[in-house]
Design brief:
Layout (H helix, E strand, L loop, with lengths): L2 H15 L13 H10 L5 H11 L5 H8 L3 H22 L10
Helix pairs in contact: 3-4
Protein name: Adhesin biosynthesis transcription regulatory family protein
Organism: Citrobacter meridianamericanus
InterPro entries: Adhesin_operon_reg_prot (IPR004356), Fimbrial_Adhesin_Reg (IPR053721)
Length: about 100
């Protein structure tokens, strides 16, 4: 086993164990949360939305979802990452939203 492979495998396991807050886990995303994310994203293609929903909500494999909905895997990956960034940003922003009891 090459050293590079060992390093990449170690980094991947570290990323799984210490996820960035707000990271979307395939098959574990709430349907309503997904719909809200898609609404504030720039994803307008219905086929792409359906493919993303299959992966994020239902846990389908990326390749299968892309084939089913006729979208390219490379374009899917870009939009998947976009939703990850939006979700992670929302979590980071949350602390700055004032409570009703706080005055601005």
């Amino acid at each position: 086993m090459s050293t590079e492979y060992k390093i990449n495998k170690t980094m991947a396991s570290y990323a799984r164990d210490f996820r960035i807050p707000g990271t979307l886990i395939p098959g574990k995303v709430n349907k309503r949360y997904f719909q809200l994310l898609v609404n504030i994203s720039c994803i307008r293609n219905d086929s792409m939305r359906e493919a993303l929903a299959c992966v994020m909500i239902s846990g389908m494999k990326r390749k299968d979802a892309c084939e089913l909905h006729g979208v390219s895997q490379s374009h899917f990956s870009i939009k998947y990452r976009d939703l990850q960034v939006i979700s992670q940003t929302i979590v980071r922003m949350y602390q700055y939203i004032p409570n009703e009891s706080e005055k601005l």
